Amino acid sequence: MSAPPPEDLVKHWESEQARLRQQVVEEDTEEWQTSPDFSGLERVGGVDLSFIKGDDVNACAQLVVLSYPDLEVLYEDSQMVTLTAPYIAGFLAFRETPFLLEALQRLKRNQPRLLPQVVFVDGNGLFHYREFGLACHLGVLSGLPCVGVAKNLLQVQGVYKSEEHQSQIAALQKGGDSFPLAAASGKVLGKALRSSDKSSKPVYVSIGHKISVDTAVHLTHSCCRYRVPEPIRQADFRSREYLRTHFPAADT
DNA sequence: GCGACAG
DNA sequence: ATCTTGTCGC
Q1: CA-to-CA distance for A57 and A104, rounded, in angstroms?
Q2: CA A208 to chain centre
Q3: Which positions in strand B are less than 7 Å from the protein's CB atoms?
Q4: Which domains does chain A have, with CATH numbers?
Q5: What's the Cα-to-Cα distance from A37 to each of A1, A214, A215, A238, rounded to whole Å?
Q6: Which of residues 168-207 of A touch strand B (CB under 7 A)?
Q7: What is the pLDDT of residues A141-173, one digit of tens each?
């Protein structure tokens, strides 16, 4: 068996996304999600992958679990992995999900009591070309509630960086303020959120699995000390730190 | 041809 | 994702 040509690969990936898309649960399913202050929520997870400068194959897969509401690190796992799939916009999950799932499996096997009750993913969830971004993919395959947080706006589903969009951003006065990102159909696929009073640039929140948009936005805001929610920020920081200490200047 | 293109 | 330090401002 040889690797299928890129075109066939993309076709296969598209059908795979369409199939898994049907399994996404777009509503709150957990008890803690119904509480205004999320009482019952004790652990929030964050995942990320970091790469070495000129290498897009070897990366550090990171999983962190923080306490809630204190946001203190309870668990950390850094693991070097070898990626096989290329990065193609719209198919990020096929490149990263396998390794993020492995990290969750290691945790489940070694310290099941530390499994997070919700996982923050850097990237989009429903706010995606086919309404099935990385956060949905990881959510469906892991069965865990997931929230997608993108640092940049994906211009898709009729959402553009228009004058109107810019003015809506300017109207976000304080941390917690948000406005909906609606598809041409009118369906709200996510929300632009001013995550803290200081950051004027919003983050784009969309649900991954087993959580409603409004709960996802509220939760994201409550996990932000800075612009990027703490679980993702810690995962990013620690995976980069791992690469720094284990792979110093790869020069001559 | 031009612009977009999560990480 | 990564290449990259200081710097201007609150």
Answers
A1: 21
A2: 8
A3: 4-7
A4: 21-246 (3.30.2170.10)
A5: 53, 13, 11, 28
A6: none
A7: 999 999 999 999 999 988 888 888 999 999 999
